[in-house]
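Q: Can I see a sequence and its folded structure?
A: Here is a first one.
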Amino acid sequence: MPNVLAVIPARGGSKGVPGKNLAPIADAPLVVRAVRAARAARLIGQVVVSTDDPGIAALARSAGAGVVERPARISGDTATSEAAVLHAMDTVEQRDGTPLDVVLLVQCTSPFITPGDLDGVTRAVLDGADSAFTAAPFHGFVWRESDQGGHGVNHDKAYRPRRQDRPQDWLETGAAYAMRAPAFRTERHRFFGRTSLVPADPARVLEIDDPHDLDRARALAPLLDGTGGRLPGREDIDAVVIDFDGTQTDDRVLIDSEGRELVAVHRGDGLGIAALRRAGLPLLILSTEQNPVVAARARKLRIPVLHGIDRKDLALKQWCEEHGINPERVLYAGNDVNDLPCFGLVGWPVAVAGAHDVVTAAARAVTTAPGGYGAIREIASWILGKELRTS
């Protein structure tokens, strides 16, 4: 597997927006949103945040990223992002003793970056590009002022061709860049060699440079985070059904020498499930895997489990009938294509961040946390709001 590192530069100081990287958008600060997207990308092996700020470092660690302490000489207003990335590369390679193949620069000031964007620039480099960046299709007429007045930059002002008759222009989004690591060390700049443009959704292009950008991001978050403007509340939900692999875990499995499987779960998910149980909501874990790990987790959470199920939708329908629950008032959380039949059955299909694209498209709401990193805790906070207790 290629050794791929994502570096998120996040200084503590900012003149335009004080404390910018700690500014909350929806349920998470900017730096946490960037970490979540990078950790959910399938092609990224490690994620580190380069910072000089203890508060940012603590948040980055809590979101699952490593932290590289940035020295003062590259932490000032004139410091470049490239300097932070090079320093992080040195730190990680010296620590691990393994050379990097690809390095990403991920800007947390782009709050709506997606795991797909990050996998896109990574894949472009793995497929032969020397450098790559996210770019959005752009169809505007660009003007520039001079002593002689305004003149067209990408057009002749005396000729206004139709959009379909103009060459396609691209706008650099400022969100994500990927580079061949050895060549980046030599060039010390994010653009070199053959540079690939990786298309990004123009609706998601926003960089936080001033307080007005923050206001726009907060207004757009309910739409661009996949919630359609409304999240389910207690008044919408009579039961919660949860997939296991990739939803309560990060979809990875560790196997010991005797063939026993181990998975990692999130303590916050357990707290969220306990709060839902205390609120009197029926709960169920539904999994296709016949695995003692699934059963053990269900026992720990004190909720029922159906596993080793080939037709999850039929099992869910029967469970609803047995408990007198209207499927339209069930929230089902999943991440992969085998969850789609259940999505079609319930009123609140929810995808976790990093879910398969077709699952995300079919969901009525999408969490900002990936599976295994607090997605179920997030769902519990939607439903219970201020009633959610963590003790």
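Q: Show me another, different protein.
A: A second, unrelated one:
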Amino acid sequence: MRTSRPARVGQYTALLAYLVFLAFPFLWLVSTAFKPPRELGSLHPTWIPKDPTLANFRQAFDEQPLLHAALNSLLAALAAAVIAVLIATPMAYVVARRRTRLAKAVTGWVVVSQAFPFVLLIIPLFLVLKNLRLINSVPGLVLVYVVWALPFALWMLAGYVRAVPPELEEAAAVDGAGRVRTMVSVTAPLLAPGIVATGLFAFITAWNEFFFALVLLKTPEKQTLPVVLTHFIGAEGVADLGPLAAAAFLATLPSLVVFALIQRRITGGMLTGAVKS
């Protein structure tokens, strides 16, 4: 069905407006990060700094342990991504290949789990981690991130598994390969792009997460980067705008780069899971 020219113009105009709406906060953040104090307090702000400076970046590193916080975020995000993928991959294979009530129940759990807000989960999670003596620890935070990332990782990987022709597994079975051997030697290599995309998505989610880290981590040396960014806001709610923008810009870069690399694979996994062969 062909779309009329006015309709296409309207669609592209709406898309452009949406892109501008999404890009505005990031572009303003970059502009603020390079502005000197006198421009930050100007009554007539400009997009492009008239006298760009790196002083905000130097001040941000001097005031807060950004590198140490970034290392905590990196360790937590990497560990959560790896563990979530290792658990979700065999689960996704079972859900995609087995048409049982258990598989349907797992699929329902994936959908329902995404409807729960953070606030309802934090108290039970806090009590569980307290009993495990994992409060105020990076391993405890990793455990929370794994639980939170598993539903989406399972759903995404199940879409990739469904895209693998069952005939390949049947041929391996004819050759004498067991189910585990078939999954490891035949299915897993074909799932490599999906596994990488799922892992990177879990990494981005954990890297940007703030609420759980704020509640579960109390010691400054164990806090993650999103939590440390709040330290640029004073007790009276006044933000040190220049260093805050510089630190936020640096914290945003890794997730933007990773998402730019995997956005096509993420979209492909979603579309694959929505199409039945």
